[in-house]
User: Fold this.
Amino acid sequence: MTTTMRILTNTLALLLLCFAGSAVAHDARPAYLQIDETTPGDYTLLWRTPVKSGRLLPVALGLPERTQPLSDPITQHLQDSLIERRRIRLATGLAGERIDFNGLQATITDVLVRVQYNDGSQSTALVQPSQPWVEIPQPQSTTGIALSYLRHGVDHILFGFDHLLFVLALLLIVRNTRTLLWTVTAFTLAHSITLTLSTLGVVRLSSIPVESVIALSIVLLATEIIRAREGKPSATARWPWLVAFSFGLLHGFGFAGALNELGLPEGDIPLALFTFNLGVELGQLIFIAIVLGAIALARRFSALDTARRHSLTATTYGIGCLAAFWFCERVVQIF
Assistant:
């Protein structure tokens, strides 16, 4: 990787660090509303709001005015969320009705809405803060379900700052484009394996310890960058694809945790798994393309060479310190 290429990568990394410093890694964890029609006009609701940094997401569920409650809400407090269950009646049916998510516009969190109808059909919608309400659609086609999970896969990687920092750290240590391609391919293959195994229930790991070790992997990668720059032996600099594959197995469990939180549509698990994973890869490629595009543009500005020495050091320590903060924050949650 040329000097100018490294400078642009460093600059983008610093911008990401500034943005990520004001947010929590994996802050894209969605709220979730599951609606099951038991008999025509009668529904059970499961409303899960995430807990982030010890605080409940300030979003309230706003049901249609003609909704009749059939039971009092039953709440369950979990480590990372609050779950509320209730039964309601809407005599004319739920399709076409509007549900509001009051307070969502003040967050950066999405809401996944899944509706299971009495006849076995279903629909899925992703609600974003820019439009904090959903009009319950008619039963959704297979294509619609696939697009919903594809979109969330893209969103998860683009707002999963720890995964992006890991990819940026790889860009800092990889020396040429060919090696970078092998490295990214190894990372993709590895996390695809563990994402599939975890989602299908073959291997399951607790989410908080996994995310703690993911943060630690970024710290270790930052130290490898410093070692390589000081001319010390570095296994990562010699075999970055092997390191990317090893840590990619771990990151796959993190992706699986996000997918499991969404809930998988019964009968469409392979489709949801495939399209979510495809969305993750698409989001990762978008991020890498932005970085490489900026690098190509920077080749025209040779004056940037004067900033090389300081920018690499600042970026590396910035990545390491932020990842160390995430690691400590997550380890505390374990206990």
The first strand starts at residue 31 and ends at 39. The two ends are 42 Å apart (CA to CA). Confidence is low (pLDDT under 50) at residues 1-16, 18-28. Residues 51 and 247 are 27 Å apart (CA to CA).
